[in-house]
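Researcher: Let's try something more involved. This one mixes different molecule types, so please make sure each is placed in the same coordinate frame as the others.
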Amino acid sequence: MNKISDFSKSFRDSHLVQGVVDEIKRITTQNWVLMEICGGQTHAIMQYGLDQLLPDQIELVHGPGCPVCVTPLDQIDRAHAIASRPEVIFCSFGDMLRVPGSEVDLFTLKARGAQIRVVYSPLDAVRIAQENSDKQVVFFAIGFETTVPANASSVLQAKAIGVENFSILVSQVAVPPAMHAILSSPKNRVQAFLAAGHVCTVMGYWEYHPIANQYKIPIIVTGFEPLDLLQGILLSVRQLEQNQYFVENAYTRAVTETGNQVAQKIIQQVFEPCDRNWRGIGSIPQSGLCLREEYAFFDAEKRFQVEHIQTREHEVCIAGEILQGLKKPFDCPAFGTQCSPTNPLGAPMVSSEGACNAYFRFSKSSIS
Amino acid sequence: MDDQFPTFEGSVCPLPLKNETTIVLGHGSGGLMTHNLIQEVFQAHFQNSFIKAGNDFANTPIPENYQNGKLSISTDGHIISPIFYPGGDIGRLAICGTVNDISMSGSNPLYITASFILEEGLQIADLNKIVLSMQETAEEAGVEIVAGDTKVVEKGKGDGIFISTTGIGWLPDHIQIRGDLARPGDVILISGTIGDHGIAVLSARGDLGFETDLQSDVAPLNHLIQSLITEIPEIHVLRDPTRGGLATTLNEIARQSNVGLMVYDELIPINSTVQSACEMLGFDPLYVANEGKVVVILSKEYKQRALEIMKSNVYGKNAAFIGEVVANHSGHVVLKTSFGTTRMLEMMAGEMLPRIC
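Model: All components are placed in one shared frame. Result:
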């Protein structure tokens, strides 16, 4: 176990970090707006205070890459309706439990007697289904390309071993359509992307070349350690300063151009692109992944017909604008007052990948 | 006429089966089964005159050399799953929790009472192990378990066993140690690595998805604290960072004392297994529970001596200086990273949840 810590230590070396920071300062001559796609990156930036090391000209805005934040409200309400049924054991990643739906969250339903279990892998949910053949076991399959292969595997495994009381409630989304949506917005301010390293570990970065060309924007595949993030920022600024725009890989220890092709094959076998609503953003064409017809048997949405979902968002919450990089958490009138991790009004305050949560936990605002 | 008289083929009186392996409702009836359980399990292990006397109370003397002081009283409930985990069990946890709570005022813990809520179906062999562990831990701490109570709840209405403990200690008048006494210029020490208990328990639950060799740090800290108090006149705050972890404890102190606390990321001792497990799950070790650690805030001039004393105790061998009390940032905890950047450390919001990817 020592090795993991020792390995990541070198990516947190303060001398190396200072070297990259100095280089960023040296080459920066004007204002630039960079967006890190992934909420994990947002958290690492705030946790290590990396934004404090950057020259004032560089502004980081936070992207939509927070799986629980973009899961649409109607799907969360549907999850709550299914989880409330007495015959259902509802399995979810832990992050999802505190996300507010229109009325309640999964924690509240659990307290009311719903059988809700936190799992670390969808395959655990398949096992729970095997162990509880008199119950319907539903897994809440949310997230970006990082979670899709495991979720697809759970369906393949359930089918292979004939576990019929297992299904998944799908809300999978893909990164490239969201990048298109952000860049084609007339309000867009983003001038370079730090692409999410783990998404690219699965998908590669071949999908990003057309985006870089179409919008003339640098896209840097970036990891999650302090040195990774600063390296991504450095390469972004270098391209911007030199008026270049192409896809560059700053996370070569994990990512290749073509990605993990076994995983991609499993994804394509089980899922197909479909239109998908993003919470706070709206519908993005072909941005979601839905179960293919031959796996429709495992689709919880079809298995449990949930009628009359009437969603209701909190009127003050500006999650949508935050997820598009248009506003920052401090711009929200409810931040830190009405809305906090103990009483979240919107998903970005809940998730360990949400921008509001990161600002709340790690913010330097009150540190002079 | 024969058929008027039933024939008896042995006793038909429905005598209860003597249940020797499992807790059943009858063990909480207050009758013979309860009596036997007390005798065979509790009195067998808690060997002192108070328990042996068999009363519903214990009249305990205040030691003769204790003059001019106050009684310290603390109470605590203990629930944990699993009840046995690497490095400890619920019994050791119950004793250490109360011994440590009493000790954090500078008091010397003397007596403990324990109330047991047992769930039908608990193995008596497990109860025996737990009670023995309590006795061994009490002996290690030098406290006596002087009274107890047992109730049994139906299957499904408990989690095997819950233990509530109350501790009584003696605080001499000259000792002033409280959460509101941290002063700017003071130093902050911790008695060892953080997060060991929380991750060891998660690991024992099988929740990590991988195995670790980590042991819980659950330990009675009264001897370590008494040696600090004996030698160092100016200890201002003692607190054990249990649930909510180090970050939450430091926040409590910052608010109580109305001061800022500045801690240095790279000085906080963390076991590499805990660090790795936290990184994989998206936990922050600063918020993970400890059961055998103490935060010590004291005048700067005693820093080295306090560290020496702590390191000479088996439960303080990884003791470290982690930060200082500052006049600004009143009511807040600020973490300084190795890059020279700073961030606020907030209290833990709710339950820690593993991240998605």
